Automatic annotation (TrEMBL):
GO molecular function per UniProt: ATP binding; ATP hydrolysis activity
Family to which the UniProt record says this protein belongs: Belongs to the ABC transporter superfamily. Ycf16 family.
Alphabetized SMART domains for the sequence: AAA (SM00382)
Domain ABC transporter positions: 8-252
UniProt name for this protein: Fe-S cluster assembly ATPase SufC
Organism: Comamonas flocculans
PROSITE patterns: ABC_TRANSPORTER_1, ABC_TRANSPORTER_2
Length: 260
């Protein structure tokens, strides 16, 4: 058991997809209620990090360590990681034909509640809470009775991910470009939900390039992922610099400064 007080501890995590190494070595601590923004050029490994933590079978953790509290994430199956308090959103949430949204979410919530030693929610209590949460997120209540994401717009799919997040109340959430496809009201809903959940102790790793949303989230730190490692850690000025100059020019500028 680690003596580190961090909620998430990653140590020299290496992840391969097939024969290609995507994450070379990632070391990172995330504290309860902390919000980190992860930025990086296409192909730098941002989504790979989230999917590897979630236990996606195509993402092979070759070496390193990943602890959630005192639990070894890498020793768990994907569903066990979710029950332990990990939530990972999809960059492109898929359809689940034939499975009603309300049944899907309630089943997930009750699995998590069981792992926490809590009583399951009955259908009435779940539906009441789900409708209230959906309203806060600008998601029509009728979406609850439809198959998961089937016929949903891009923004509706992302709001549905936020609905799951809100109701499951995880310890740590990795949100992969949650703003993609969102309108202005959707982005505001993201910020409002994240603020509330942070105050309740949920930690966040948010993958985004949308500077306005990043500024509204007021992250504790901004990380730049490059060639499979965390190349830089900074504050909002790092995000602004990347937004102004782009990843390639920013990295070149940092390299020139280091050589000077």
């Amino acid at each position: 058991m680690s003596s580190n007080s961090a909620l998430l501890q990653l140590r020299e995590l290496r992840v391969d997809i097939g024969e290609r190494t995507v994450l070379q070595s990632v070391t990172l601590d995330v504290q309860p209620g902390e919000l980190l923004v992860l930025m990086g050029a296409n192909g730098s490994g941002k989504s790979t990090l989230g999917l590897a933590l979630a236990g996606h079978p195509q993402y092979q953790v070759v070496s390193g360590q990943a602890l959630l509290g005192d639990q070894d994430l890498l020793a768990m199956q994907a569903h066990e990681r979710a029950r332990a308090g990990l939530f990972v959103s999809f960059q492109a949430p898929p359809d689940v034909p034939g499975v009603k949204n309300n049944l899907f979410i309630r089943t997930a919530i009750n699995a998590v509640r069981q792992a926490r030693g809590e009583e399951p929610q009955d259908a009435f209590d779940f539906l009441s809470g789900a409708k209230a949460a959906a309203k806060d997120l600008g998601l029509p209540a009728t979406m609850l009775s439809r198959p998961v994401n089937e016929g949903f717009s891009g923004g509706e799919r992302k709001r549905n991910e936020l609905l799951q997040l809100s109701l499951m109340q995880p310890k740590l959430a990795v949100l992969d470009e949650i703003d993609s496809g969102m309108d202005v009201d959707g982005v505001r809903a993201v910020v409002k939900l994240v603020e509330r959940m942070r105050a309740e102790g949920t930690a966040f790793i948010i993958i985004s390039h949308y500077l306005q949303m990043i500024e509204s989230l007021k992250p504790d730190a901004v990380l730049r992922l490059d060639q499979g490692t965390i190349a830089e850690r900074g504050d909002m000025e790092l995000a602004r610099s990347i937004a102004r100059s782009g990843f390639k020019q920013h990295a070149a500028s940092m390299a020139a400064t280091a050589e000077a």
